[in-house]
Amino acid sequence: YWSREKAFEVMQTLLTKFSQIDAVWTGDDDMLHGVLIALRQAGRDKNIVLVGGACEKNIVKMIMDGHPLIEVDFTYPPNMIATAINLAVMGLKGESLNGFYQKGIPRKIILSTETVTRQNAKDYYFPDSVF
Predict the structure, then answer these.
(1) Does residue 109 carry a pLDDT above 90?
(2) Helix axes 57-64 and 29-41, enclosed angle (nearest 10)
(3) Which residues, 6+ apart, have CB-to-CB distance to 124 below 8 Å?
(4) 8-66, pLDDT tens digit by residue?
(5) What is d(CA 121, CA 131) in angstroms, rounded to the nearest whole number?
(6) Residue 87: its pLDDT value, please?
(7) Which is deepest, 62, 90, 91, 123, by most CB within 10 Å?
(8) Distance between CA 26 and CA 8 in Å, rounded?
(9) What is residue 103's predicted lDDT score, i.e. its pLDDT?
(10) If you count DSSP H runs as helices and E runs as strands, how many of each does the chain have, helices first?
(11) CATH number, domain 4-77+113-124, options 3.10.20.30, 3.40.50.2300, 3.40.50.300, 3.40.190.10
């Protein structure tokens, strides 16, 4: 489901079902591209707020350039892999997780993310990046 194509299909369905859509949030920027294509094809790419996640370079560039629908994006926490590895190692060692109420690894951990806007997008734009 986390693909441009699937997001395009879902957005087409939503555009058919609802005459007014004020905002769309996608869990990933690749999905945001699919939503944007569906909106353009339907002629409904005005007066709607779009928010993605991951700061894919093309979305960050759109924010930098002042895209009227995409004013903000959110990074995936760069430390999420390190956090997961550390928790796994601690869990395997049976160590207590300081700061948590239970001894075992918690079911949910919320990591911070960075908000990317036109004011700071240049700090998150890497044109040579694969993503």
Answers:
(1) no
(2) 60
(3) 55, 60, 75, 114, 116
(4) 999 999 999 999 999 999 989 999 999 999 999 999 999 999 999 999 999 999 999 99
(5) 15
(6) 78
(7) 62
(8) 11
(9) 60
(10) 4, 4
(11) 3.40.50.2300
